[in-house]
Amino acid sequence: MQLDKVSSSREGQPVCLKRVNRKRYSRQQGYSFASDLLAVEEPLQISIEWQTSGASQCEMWSMTMRTPGDDVNLVYGLLLSQNVVDSWLDIQSVRCFDEHVSHAMNHVLVTLKQGVEPRLAPSSRRFVSTSSCGVCGATSVKALQLSQRQVMDESHHWLAPEQVLTMPHLLNQNQQIFHQTGSVHGAAYIVNGDVIAVAEDIGRHNAVDKLFGYLARSEAWHPQGVLVLSSRVSFELMQKAVIAGVAVIVSVGAPSQVAVDIARQFDMTLIGFTKAEHFNLYNGHWRLMPEQE
């Protein structure tokens, strides 16, 4: 199943894409005129409301840059990965509002169920995230706590190396926005060689949050599910995987040193530089099937 990335429109235009005119220069032909489809990047304001001792409270929680079109799953994934709530069932509703005046700001209001209070940092520690960085910066990195909700699957010898080699292709062939724009990251969840869901976003962190939000809401988690990334693997992406209980990460790019440290700390299988013919295994070899003699 593929996530809905173009579910709404503005004046008939998919919210995640915008066509712009441009000039192209070549030595043989000089300038020529055409148009390109570009990935849209807009800010999303997320506010949370809840009941405390019978009184209603509402606060602005975060502002994040993202590719529009799958905001509900993004919000679910963000709230879970940042430990604001314990479960997707703590959320009563997510309502999206569009600021029609400028078309440049979108607002989401999250309502928590009765008796659920969010874990919110002090206002000085609330974050504004960008598509390239996610939740980063010296202050917020120090505030991040790895809170493991799910126990990692510890089964041995279930993942075939040949299957790993196919995963970047499985992700790529399901990246519809990337093939139209060339400018978005992708994240896939693969179980037993089957692609369960794919999410795309201008930000690699958002792609994972959209994916994890969908998996939580649909209760599609599997103990031997594999997270496949089109990008490098950083601290923030590892943190999201730890909290979700995803034990295996396969990436087209390289991991950071901290990502490898986290994989070792939580007994995760971390694979990087994955191509059609080879990959690098940084931790968790016991989950891979041994070579045939």
UniProtKB/TrEMBL annotation:
Coiled coil: which residue ranges?
Answer: none
Where is this gene product found?
Cytoplasm
Is-annotated flag, keyword Ribosomal protein? Answer: no
Which SUPFAM superfamilies does the record match to this protein? Cytidine deaminase-like
Kindly state which keywords UniProt assigns to this record, in alphabetical order.
Answer: Cytoplasm, Molybdenum cofactor biosynthesis
Report any one BP term from Gene Ontology.
Answer: Mo-molybdopterin cofactor biosynthetic process
Cellular component terms, GO, for this chain's entry? cytoplasm
Q: Which Pfam family would be a valid example here?
A: FdhD-NarQ
List the Gene Ontology MF annotations in alphabetical order: sulfur carrier activity; sulfurtransferase activity
UniProt keyword annotation of Ubl conjugation present: no
**HAMAP family in the record, alphabetically?**
FdhD (MF_00187)
Q: What does this protein do?
A: Required for formate dehydrogenase (FDH) activity. Acts as a sulfur carrier protein that transfers sulfur from IscS to the molybdenum cofactor prior to its insertion into FDH.
- Name the family the entry cites: Belongs to the FdhD family.
Q: Can you name this protein?
A: Sulfur carrier protein FdhD
Q: Which organism is it from?
A: Vibrio xiamenensis
- Name of the gene encoding the protein in the UniProt record: fdhD
